[in-house]
Amino acid sequence: MLFRNNLIHQARLIGLLAALVGVTACAQTPPEIADAPPLPTPIVVVATYTPEDTAVPTATAVPTNTPLPTATFTPLPSPTPEPYQFPVISAANASDIAAVNVVGSGVISEIAFNPAGDLLAVGGGAGITIYAYPSFAKRFTIPAPHRSIQALDWSADGNYIVAGADWADAYIWEVETQTLLVETSFDFYSVNTVDWSADQSMVAMTGWRGQTIIWDAATGQTLQELPIYQNTDIAWAHTGTRVAIGGLGGEVFIWDADTQAFVASLTVSTERITSIHWSADDSKLIVGNADGVVYIWDIASDTVQLTFTGHRDIQTANEQGPVAWITAADWSPNEAVVASVPRWSDPMLWNAETGEIISEFKGTAPPLQSLTWHPNGEHVVMATTGGQLYVWNALTKQLDLTIGSPSPELVSVDWAPDSKRIVTAGEEGHLQSIDTESGALERVFRGHAETRVTASRWAPDGSKIASVGFDASVRVWDAATGSTIFINAETHARLVFAVAWAPDSQHIATGGLHDDVYIWDATTGELVNTLYAVFGAVRGLEWSPDGQFVAVASDDGRVRVFNADTAELVNYLYGHGGDATDVIWQPTAANQLVSVGDFGRINFWDRDNDAVERHVIGGPFGINAADWSPDGTLIVASNSIYNTIDIWDAATGTILVTLTGHTAEVNDVAWAPDGTKIISISEDGTAYVWALPDRSE
Hints:
This protein is mostly beta strands. The chain is built from 2 helices and 56 strands. A 4-stranded antiparallel beta sheet has the order 1-56-55-54, with no helix packed on it. A 4-stranded antiparallel beta sheet has the order 2-3-4-5, with no helix packed on it. Strands 6-7-8-9 form a 4-stranded antiparallel beta sheet, with no helix packed on it. It starts with a helix and ends in a 6-residue tail after the last strand. 45% of the residues are buried.
């Protein structure tokens, strides 16, 4: 009965609830929608019977403030691009070879910041190299089409550079795109200085013989030729049409390009004017002079307001010989300070009002060539002719950075066995190991007197470097540390020109001017053997691949082959019309060698029969150096007349490609041991790396 009554009770309750819901729904329906369909029947939940002896479980509360865990996304690592692998150079692809890097800025002639101060232009043997500021990271190089850059200037808007070169060539580039817009040439030997007019429509230029011309920046056509000669420097006023010109006899002239007349002049000494810069308001000129003095000329009052003799006074007090030739002097951006650079002593900062010396910059390596202030006045950058930049902090008076390495003329180059590094030598009396991919200077080997290092060669096992030079010394260095393993400066009586490693990396051969060829133990310095009967200067040396023979090329036009163990002369080869400048063994054959020399002749020799197997006349030029490709199929040779490099097919004797880029004579060439790259060095102070560039991008 109880169970039935409960069901009846529940049914009545459910009916009552349904009736209430229906009444409420009807009461809330607005009149305008009274005819709308009835609301859906509510879902009725029927209670579930639970026996009285079974406990109902208690619900567990779920906190509402606990956030759901957030999914963590871990991106896949980005793939690291594989470095480009240079292909091996062969006869089939030689025509695609290009310069993939230029090591060094070469001989530096002029430097300048752009007006915005974010770029530094360096002009010299490599063309124009652009560095970013403040990192001083190298951005790119604009190669000069034919000649070494001697002078440059930025346009007022910072978009263009005008430059003058050897043989009076002049160029205008759009910097961002590196596009050559104007190329022109003038009838005088070389360019001393170039400067834009304020409106960028004209360029003023002085030549090596003292000519001064003004030319149209759009067409390259001459507009005016000034009626004075023996001019040395030129600077255009920041506004208007006035041009300041320095002379060989200590005169400074101001020319009005609009009226084509002189409006003022000043004579400060009888010595050459070396540097001219206008003040920001064009009321004054700062004038550097070859007598070691810097002058500030107030043009309106026609008076010399200040004469700074600090460089000359210091040099005279120290009994350093001739006075300090001023190569550059310029105001700081606020014109309160002057920076001046003498050629052979320390640069200085001094007060532009009083002439009081503020700071001397110790530690620069002369000869100094140029300077430029950064527009914010924090840094002043100075350049040596040898290719080195010094970044001095004008606020702290400290050297912040040194860029490049001093080497105005490179004479010798060789690859490390890993084909990634080179060793170079030149006029400065030291060697440098350089990473060819980054251009970074790894190590400097100092020890030769400050004269030319004529040859530097890496040992086949990479552990040592040998060098010889004009100081008559023979030196072997530890390649990893730069320390000296041995020195001999007594055996060679005169200049030493050539050095070669034996395949075992334990012995070297050296030869020089009217001297014998000596064989040394490269570790102990012991003289092992002497090869006699060499006449004339030894220009080239190389060991045969099997280590049995040493070939000697000399300026008597002969090639001699000696037995390295017995010192016996086993071959006497002649066939050059002039000097024999280099000799190289065929890498895969112990009886085949090639010699090169004057008149562009390449002689192929068969050592077994003492005869020229064949010879190639390349043209009316000399060959300073040559090298085989590692597989013995190609020969790379310098062209001393046209400043180029030729790659020859050794089988046919034909030139496959001629490489251009150097602006002066090519002194040495070398093929990388892995066959993928060629290095060439020049009197312009640059080293060019040639390879097959990645053209997939």
